[in-house]
Amino acid sequence: QMFFDIEDEIAFEEEVDELFTKTIEAKMEKMKQSKEQFKKNLRRFADTHQREINEDPAFRHSFLKMCKNVGVDPLSSSKSLLGKVGLMQFYNNLAIQIIRDCKSLSVKQGGIILLDDLRRLRNKDKSEKDSITEEDIETAINKIDDYFHSGYELLTINNQRYLRSVPKALSNDHSSILAHVEGKKKGWSLSELEKELQWTPSRIEHTINELLQDGYAWIEEKEEEFNYWFPSVILRT
Fold it and tell me: Fewer CB in 10 Å around end: N or C, the chain?
């Protein structure tokens, strides 16, 4: 009797497993069908609202956010959803313009550029309806890195967004100095930074030298003590 009880239990467990597997497979198939249907609806929506997506920045970002929330990457290829409405070309062109802007501004601002500066530069000769937003710039920057692995990186310093365009990551010490001098239009001596940050002289000197090498800082020679300027975070276009 005990032997048959065990057999019955095994058979029951196998039936439960089979039922569970069929249920999961049915749910997965239903989810797949729902996702495909949603993609069709999304394409139909993009076709219907092509003009608003291209011309209205707020509408465009709401649409991109909607795509992201459902796991659809509308910028994954030229044959993608947004290839049909022209936004692939829009972001590709913007990415090229950003690369050019970074090169032209590097002499004045060093290795990092305020996103608001890029936005104002891109909007200089545009009407309000054609304006570029910081969200547009961030999307284009992400595409630059996807395509070229260029090392472009978005940074936040004192609650402001910057683009780093030199191929080297900022350390915590680099970021601490840039955050400390941000917005203060003056040159800094090593002794000033040492006193205000409460760092050792060697730590200050080493960090400043690295910032100089990478274009984040400039040096002004003075008789008493050199001054260091940080154009990326104190100058505006």
Answer: N
d(CA 128, CA 132): 9
Q: What is the DSSP string of 165-191?
A: -SSSPPPHHHHHHHHHHTT--S-B-HH
Q: CA 144 from chain center: how many Å?
A: 10
- Phi and psi of 38, rounded to 5°? -65, -40
* pLDDT for res 15: 67
Q: How far is CA 158 from CA 36, 89, 155, 179, 181, in A?
A: 43, 33, 10, 6, 10
**β-sheet bridge partners, residue 188:** 228
Q: What are the backbone angles phi and psi of residue 97, rounded to the nearest 5°?
A: -65, -40
Helix (H, G, I), strand (E, B) or coil at 30: helix
With beta carbons less than 8 A apart as the criterion, state whether 212 and 232 touch.
no
pLDDT at 237 over 50: no
Characterize the bridge pairing of strands 227-229 and 153-157. Answer: unpaired
Nearest to 193, CA basis, from 220, 226, 167: 226
How is residue 3 written in tokens?
């032997």
pTM over 0.70: no
pLDDT at 93 over 80: yes
Contact 177, 197 (CB under 8 A): yes
